[in-house]
Predict the structure.
Amino acid sequence: MFTTNLFYNNGKDIEFNDPRDRYAITGDITDKGAYKATTLRNISLMGPYMHDGRYETLDEVIEFYSHQVKMSPYVNPLMHYAGEGGVQLTPTEKAELKAFIFTLQDEAFLNNPDFSPPAVFPDGSTYQQVAGKYLQN
Ligand code: HEM
């Protein structure tokens, strides 16, 4: 599923007082600033990104992992280059990473009618009415 389903602090911030982070649930100090790593399947269609939607585009996310990672006592050790501000991708590597992420777009899943909203909900409203402002033209 392109995720571990685990919780990590991926180095976005240096201050942690969010009542919605993993620490708020577990009380474990190592969970400060940690959030669930979402699946990368179809992630190219799922912006804005991160728990607070701070990045509008995948380019911004890749820029973050490349050059804007912030070191703190709570950053997960998997963020190996946190001390250097990120993995320092070249423009070519960023483009290749983005192209790879686009390969995780799952057309069969996206177009499977079994996962489509019903034409009419039990209360008579339609998906268009419920989700209208989120739908793209
Ligand atoms: C360069 C490699 C990586 C890429 C391309 C990548 C991509 C992404 C993307 C696109 C999101 C946004 C998901 C969403 O908004 O639904 C995300 C979130 C996240 N990633 Fe990564 N990731 C990478 C490396 C890592 C690593 C190594 C970790 C583990 C330490 C990690 C942990 C997380 C977590 C915990 C979130 C959720 C953060 C939040 O909700 O604020 N990622 N990642």
Remarks:
- The helical segments are 22-26, 58-68, 91-103, 107-110, 127-131.
- Residues 3 and 39 are 5 Å apart (CA to CA).
- Residues 8, 10, 35, 37-38, 43, 46, 49-51, 61, 65, 76, 78-79, 97 surround protoporphyrin IX containing FE (CB under 6 Å).
